[in-house]
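Morning run. Coffee first, then this:
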Amino acid sequence: MTDPITEGNEHLIAAALADIDADPLPDPVTPEAMHELFKSARKAKGELPATPAGPHASDKAASADALAVRIADAIEEGQPVHVPDHLRQLFDFLYPQPQTTAEEPAPGQEPETTHDKAEPGELHNGTTPPQTPAHEEPAPSATPPTGSAQPAHPPVGEPAPGAGRPRHTGPTISSTTDATAS
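And here it is:
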């Protein structure tokens, strides 16, 4: 990992760790210290020994939530937040900005920008995340359904076919009688 979120955001991470009562707090806050704090336990494999879990392995989600709140607060207050290049590229891909032309604005008019800038304190006021439109009909299948075709998944709220019945896991035994044998 070449550009972790830890670097440049140490003060935010330390505050988030304090928010979840992580004790003791690592000093200094480094990517390696975060790994040791939150690492999962691993079983021994071959010649590699078992690795014990870090002291806050079960607090990963709580620490991520606390850090997200701290980052949002810092942005809202106009404080700098370091965004690693790989995350910046991901967000640029997911939320592309429209291209602007090189036209000069008329005298007295503000130039158009490629994105909106939030002023401190405005970040969460009246904004909503982008919404994915809901589909009422499933996407058409590449092959037309037959009379006995069943959907891959039951509609939401309906039990799956066979739900509640025991699964048969053994061989199928059938008893047939040969009526032509004498």
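The two ends are 78 Å apart (CA to CA). Good start to the day.
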